[in-house]
Amino acid sequence: MRAFLGLLAGVLLAIGGGVGAEAAAGTGSGNPTAAVSSAIVRTAQQKSADFSVRFTVSLASGSSASVSGSGAADLATDRFRLSFNNLLGASSGPVELLMVGGKIYLGAPQLAQLLGGKTWIAIPEQSAPAGTKTSSNNASQTIKRALTRSGVSVRDLGGAAVGGVSVEHYVIRYGANAIRGALGKLPVSLPASSRQVLKGLGPVSVGVWIDGSGLVRQLAGGFFVPLTAGAPSRLQYTVGFSNFGTPVQVQAPPASEVAPFSRFAKTLGGAGAGTSALSGLSSIL
Fold this sequence. Notes:
Helix content: 25-40%
Number of strands: 12
Order of helices and strands: HHEEEEEEHEEHHEEEEHH
């Protein structure tokens, strides 16, 4: 369950936004903070789920590009698969990400040209400190504290529908105080350029859609990133969840097709930022 809980909590508690302007419209009743924190934990407790992701980059010039993927997660054994069909171009073939037995694998047909025919690399994983295994109760308390800290507010924006399912739409808004607090907890390995981008963020928000069973059906947000000179570009994301409880089959790739990340990094001329970025990904998952 650690991986999926990390995915949910990470997206919700990371700095992201895009719906903050709507917060003032909320007129829902009840306790939004309790509803959202309970839904995160309840969703993570499901045995399995399918999920989809979509990222859109909008440039200052007015053009935009999107990439989407889908996958499934076995929440009981911390296994998941995620496939992007157009990540490297319309005819590039799938790029796949797997987590099996605590190991993370990245696969793409293009890797064969760099790795002597091998199409998978094993991503270094950062081990969790001793005694940090997540329990549902500890996770619930951690999330509640995060959602009630200074500068964070949760609002109920009312009913909506996601994929034909009736849901309640919430928004988590992170004010300047919350963002400053989060910056102080960033890993020291984070590149200075990325840290500078985060320091420039203003109040941002994350949208959360919860169904009648108390399960998270969708997360969405966005933020500005300096991809080009001049005006910043906007990155928007949507993560959807469905088919809770459906059996999931996730197998590690054959060992004969997997190359160690050190070989991949050497081929590119050194690990550098690539090692840091992929290791950071593994720590989240």
